[in-house]
Amino acid sequence: MVIGVDIGTTSTKAVAYDTDGRQLGTHAVGYPLDAPLPGRAEQDFDLIHAAVLETVRTVAAGLAGPVAGLSFSSAMHSLIGLDADDNPLTPVVTWADARASGQAERLRVAANGLALHRRTGTPVHPMAPLPKLVWYAEQKPQVFARVARWVGIKDLLLLRLCGELVTDHSLASGTGLLDIHRLDWDPEALEIAGITAAKLPRLVPTTTVLPGLTPGAARATGLPAQTPVVVGAGDGPLANLGLGAVRPGVLACSIGTSGALRVMVEQPAVDPLGGVFCYALTEHRWVVGGAVNNGGIVLGWAGDALAPELAEQTEEELLALAARAPVGSGGLIMLPYLLSERAPHWSSLARGAYVGLTHGHRREHLVRAALEGVCQQLAVVLRSVRAAGNEVREVRASGGFARSPLWRQMLADALGLPVRFPAGHEGSGFGAALLGMQALGLVPSVDVAADLVEIAETVTPDPAAAATYAALLPLHEELYDALLPTFTSLRRLAPGLPPEPPPAAPPA
Prior knowledge:
The chain has helices spanning 45-61, 101-108, 113-120, 129-139, 141-146, 153-162, 169-172, 187-193, 215-221, 235-243, 296-306, 315-323, 363-387, 405-415, 428-439, 449-452, 463-493, and strands spanning 2-7, 11-17, 23-30, 42-43, 69-74, 80-82, 92-93, 149-151, 166-168, 178-179, 184-185, 202-204, 209-210, 229-234, 250-255, 259-265, 277-282, 285-292, 333-335, 353-355, 394-398, 419-422, 455-459.
């Protein structure tokens, strides 16, 4: 049995599996994502550390036999500054933190911006640690000067558990600091960030097995000190394993608060226009794809803003309202950039917009257009995945949206592909456990994921609906370019305007 530990943005979940893919125990602990000021999205590392210990201890206590090892998944793009004694000088700055928007935009449009993206695999975007480091150097120079090492959440956690400061190739490939073709820190990126490799953890493969737990960590988890600990990887690449999307042509799609598309490849590559990311999983497995900021959060906004009397009722009521509108929402298009946007443009300037409103549109059209906007944005990302040279013939999907038959069908229609929904697996947690099994020699390869993941339902595109969405997709794509000057002007005018209302909850 291997316990996969998935360190997420708002909770940590530990899940135990055996080598047949059977789930033997699970436990989750939540914690806040703090937004003390607009644009900030931070966490307290001590709360995450405590959650990891509690989830592992609870799951291990309920198992009938020994644990063969622990293996870790972590949210990507986090950044923590440590002092010389490896104590945090900063909060955990998460991917959702947007303070480095100005620095990211400046780096992205620079002459070397696209080359940097294609070399590191990480878009030049405020989510990534590279622009965050530039922000710290420019806005918090005293803190920046005091930091002895810059690390991510999982790096510091492994230091606390095992006494070794390392970072895996997967999380490193999401920093904007790693040359993904050499699997070493990129000299130009380090120079831009104003740091040296000595201020970063030692790079290791995701399948690296650390020697065991410290005595304190063994007591806190209830596991023997000699329990092997597999370093693990980022949650995005591991989600492909959890869905069984490991073979060529099989795309993983996840829609929670945000969303993402990822396909697994054998060689790192970014499309010529820099529309996708490329992150490592193992030496011969990479994921190419794109993330969108606006997934399920758009449905929540639509309920609050357009149908507040349904807010106290079930999500099904809001989706039933959307179902009353026709496919294509009567020619109404929504750009769902409520929390700005990531793929494929990777600019923090974007704002949401409705285009095509007429006197005949009602709120069911507005709600449906919001959902269609999310699916159409994913279809735009799919185009970039294909532009990077990847064949896609099947989609495997997970996330809260999968509870809705309307949204499942809408996704299949917008992507124009069959969408398969696996049963009973915990995504990145299962992926972490599988990677741990490979590292410990319990399974021959992570490729077994394709056979271990059972498909519960397949949704095929409706030809007429798919044709409607395909006809509208070019308009959706054109609108970003057409409105970019307006987005830019709004950013410039923002300091002199009344402040925008805060979101109902920070992104998760």
